[in-house]
Design brief:
It catalyses: S-sulfanyl-L-cysteinyl-[protein] + uridine(34) in tRNA + AH2 + ATP = 2-thiouridine(34) in tRNA + L-cysteinyl-[protein] + A + AMP + diphosphate + H(+). Its main location: cytoplasm. Keywords: ATP-binding, Cytoplasm, Disulfide bond, Nucleotide-binding, RNA-binding, Transferase, tRNA processing, tRNA-binding. The protein is α/β, with parallel strands linked by helices. The chain has 9 helices and 17 strands. The strands form 4 sheets. The protein has a 6-stranded antiparallel barrel with strand order 12-15-14-13-16-17. The protein has a 5-stranded parallel β-sheet with strand order 3-2-1-4-7, with helices on both faces. Strands 9-8-11-10 form a 4-stranded mixed β-sheet, with no helix packed on it. A hairpin with a 4-residue loop joins strand 10 and strand 11. The longest helix is centred in the N-terminal third of the chain and has 20 residues. The chain is globular, with a radius of gyration of 22 Å.
Length: 364
């Protein structure tokens, strides 16, 4: 099989490319140049869009013995990921840029170009598995599992994806990289958001959206408790950095309950007011299982799973949670899993539009 290996410059993608080569595939490595100005992106192996990463990927391809190219996709990345990130925050939602990158760049633009060039599939270093049924499953290394950010992929895209690392732990991947003589064996994992050079998300959004002062109010009384410079700097469930000028009567911390862009208002309240037992979502991608279905749902990256009854209808998804969840933010993904002896199977995903509390939950 002729495959294109997406090589970020990290240890995972390097070992994935090497395994694909060992399996007898005709492998070509490609590094995606995603930064319009790479010098402004992270260095020191903290991101995945730097000049340093490009050089690391090239050296790994040389060691493996495969052809290597760099594809400039900076404009598309900016339009589909960076601009989307900014506009989602402006609309009061909390996006996941890694999920959007997988959806729009790695398994849409890259896969489309790869197929047009005669490749059969795209290989990546994601920690996830594909079963013989073509369904996505969690990695054996649950601490590194990335099925959540891949769950947005369609069946057609999964059919042309190869994830060689799903049956290995991260420690095993690093040990293999050392044995293969790959210089990236001990390279730290990337952290935070790759296109925010200093890690200051609030500052990044303010530079793009400008200062927009507004009120922070109590969710129960409507009392003004403080001000903010932009509602986009907050997310549901946030506790720190609220800078409230009026302390709670009971002395307990308060959390962001909602963001309302129309009035530029951030509403806060006690932790129990965050609880929801129904989640609605849009743009559902579902892999054939009939609904309603009892399953587990994950409501944010690396979040805990919650048992739920899920229904998909008209492109939307509704999850009725068996246990209340807190900090459910619009813009994040809800991913449904079916517990399985061979590893949790991804049934589908959708983009959260809202969390709702039933009257019974509100009454307690």
């Amino acid at each position: 099989m002729r495959v294109l290996a997406a090589m970020s410059g990290g240890v995972d993608s390097a070992v994935a490319a090497a395994r694909a080569h060992d399996a007898g595939h005709d492998v070509t490595g490609v590094h995606l140049a995603l930064a319009r100005n790479p010098q402004t992106y992270r260095t020191g192996a903290r991101g995945c869009c730097t000049l340093e990463d490009s050089r690391d990927a090239r050296r790994a391809a040389d060691v493996i013995g495969i052809p290597f190219y760099v594809w400039d996709m900076a404009d598309q990345f900016h339009d589909d990921v960076v601009d989307d990130f900014v506009s989602e925050y402006a609309a009061g939602r909390t996006p996941n840029p890694c999920l959007r990158c997988n959806e729009k760049i790695k398994f849409a633009a890259v896969l489309d170009r790869a197929v047009a060039l005669g490749f059969d599939a795209v290989v990546t270093g994601h920690h996830a598995r594909l079963g013989p049924d073509g369904l996505l499953r969690r990695s054996v290394d649950l601490a590194k599992d990335q099925s959540y950010v891949l769950a947005v992929l369609t069946g057609e895209q999964l059919a042309r994806a190869v994830f060689p690392l799903g049956d290995s732990t991260k420690a095993e991947v690093r040990a293999e990289a050392t044995a293969r003589g790959l210089a990236v064996a001990d390279k730290p994992d990337s952290h935070d958001i790759c296109f925010i050079a200093d890690g200051d998300t609030r500052g990044f959004l303010e530079r793009h959206l400008g200062s927009a002062p507004g009120d922070i109010v109590d969710g129960r009384t409507g009392e003004k408790l403080g001000t903010h410079n932009g509602a986009y700097a907050y997310t549901v469930g946030q506790r720190k950095g609220l800078d409230l000028r009026v302390p709670a009567a009971d002395g307990r911390p308060r959390y962001v309950l909602s963001i309302t862009p129309k009035t530029n208002t951030v509403t806060v309240g006690p932790r129990e007011a965050l609880a929801v037992d129904t989640v609605t979502a849009a743009r559902a991608i579902w892999h054939g299982a009939p609904t309603p279905v009892d399953c587990d749902v994950q409501l944010r990256a690396h979040g805990e799973v919650v048992p739920a009854a899920v229904t998909v209808e008209g492109g939307g998804l509704t999850a009725r949670l068996r246990e209340p969840a807190r900090g459910v933010a619009a813009g994040q993904a809800i991913v449904a899993y079916r517990p399985d002896a061979g590893g949790d199977i991804v049934l589908g995903s959708a983009t959260i539009t809202a969390g709702h509390a039933s009257e019974e939950l509100v009454r307690g």
